[in-house]
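Q: Could you predict the 3D structure of PTS sugar transporter?
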Amino acid sequence: MTVNTDRTEKAYKIEILFQERMIRNLQHWQSIFSLLTGVGVLFIYFFKNKNIWFFGSGIALCVIGILVILTVGYAIYTGKKNVTRVIERYDSVEKKI
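A: Sure. Here are the predicted structure tokens for PTS sugar transporter:
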């Protein structure tokens, strides 16, 4: 019986570490897309009266960047809730042992 609980405990710890690492990866992606949005803002600012293609590209980069930032932010939010649920479940399993 102890072998099974040791496996369960190890599996919970591995899952918690994996999900926390994936949340950190999502946060890195979110910062990359915020940088992309910033480049779009610069394109809009510098090319508003000079080049319509760069101006349009800036608008597209801003819109796409903001949508991706919001989507990744929601994924981070739900991921953190999921990690909290896994930790609570791990604590409840640990108390039963």
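Q: Anything worth pointing out?
A: The helical segments are 2-46, 52-96.
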